Amino acid sequence: MEPNLVTDPRLAGVLDELRRREPIFHRPECGSSRADHLVMTTEDFWEVGASGRRYSREHVLDVLDERQRDPSPDPWETSDFHCRQLAGAVYLLTYTLRQGERVTRRATIWQRDPDGWKIVYHQGTVVADA
């Protein structure tokens, strides 16, 4: 039933770069301010949360600002990374994120441009009976 997710060896470097950026917005070394997050995302970035709700870039940035004002511990563990090239400089990165008992599958579309990596789209889906 499970797909055979094997990253093309030619994408090993991209996989490694993107793996170090996930989970998005949880890597202080990649930036933690609104200005950092603006640089990390394309102007038309949006996401679908684990709830199934769609969120605009502006809403996501507002939530991240609030998180910065009242930080709380958020232990997490990632696994099962897979990278696929979608077009020229556009890549799909998928992985599993465990936050305590909550397990989600994550998908981020990344675009490499002259200024670095930008997040185009992100989605999280709760895994039933993880």
Automatic annotation (TrEMBL):
Question: Pfam family example for this protein?
Answer: DUF4440
This protein is called DUF4440 domain-containing protein
**Highest taxon listed in the record's lineage:** Bacteria
Residue span, DUF4440 domain: 39-119
UniProt source species:
Rhodanobacter humi
